[in-house]
Design a protein that fits this description.
The protein has a six-stranded mixed beta sheet with strand order 6-4-5-7-8-9. It has a four-stranded mixed beta sheet with strand order 1-2-3-10, with helices on one face. A hairpin with a 2-residue loop joins strand 4 and strand 5. Helix 5 packs across helix 6. The two termini are about 15 Å apart. It is globular and about 55 Å long. It is an alpha/beta fold. It is built from eleven helices and ten strands.
Amino acid sequence: MAAIDLHIHSAYSSDGEFPVADLVDKCLGARLTHFSVTDHNSVRGVGEAAALARTKGIGFIPGIEIDCNYRGTDLHLLGYGIDWHSADFARLEEEVAAKVMASFGSMIDNLLKLGFSVDAEAVLAAAGGNLPTGELIAEVMLSDAKYHTPLLRPYMEGGARSDMPYINFYLDYFAQGRPAFVPVAYMDYRDAVELVRDNGGTPVVAHPGLNFRGREEVAEQLLDRGAAGLEVFNNYHSPEQAVYFTSLALSKEAFMTCGSDFHGKTKPRIAVGRFPVDSRFDGRLSDFVNHVNVIGGQGV
């Protein structure tokens, strides 16, 4: 259990579940001293979170998680301490939304070709005006027996992938390189770094061991090309990866951060403030919090 969670998603993320107010209550319940709402390509929840943090006396760091691409690999860049009022972020959200919507039809088509049964209009209705996601497609299929096929059995109750069925389905079918994957032309990694820095923020690579599993050394290139730090402690890194990224951050004099990547129902086994962390580096995590713009509670 950590006292700092710098990677939390609200309902403003296409795959998030809870309103910002509920997240703040969860942070207080977890006895966090500092948190950050880092929605996908969106800062719409930041103002509300900042106001609630001031009221409730908990430290809050404005954040965002940006989809980008480095040499053919999709990854996520966290931006902390950003000026969330900047029109750059509203423009980013609009541009990414257009690209995702353009890919949706191909996502459905790819599943149908693989033998799944799903209706695009039903998914859009379930999205309720938000962006449709691979996780939502899985939720729609699993929630209605008319879409059930043998291919879905691993994600149904008791199946091998039923512990977190929505995100597992996404990882198995829509992640980069998987059978139903549809490429989206996200911005170049270096442009994402520049976007964060131009708006007063500090760029940090999210869960590098997830996006570059087996190629962990790429994280050094990402630091050399503009990132100020790495999300070392999270729910995705193995102990060996955490040790590797810790050593890399120390050797490069880069920041170390931590976060749960809480979403809600798409990742039901992940809770606010809960992820493996090495207490020997609490001071390094505090250094990062002290570096960025904290709203609300006192510094660490």
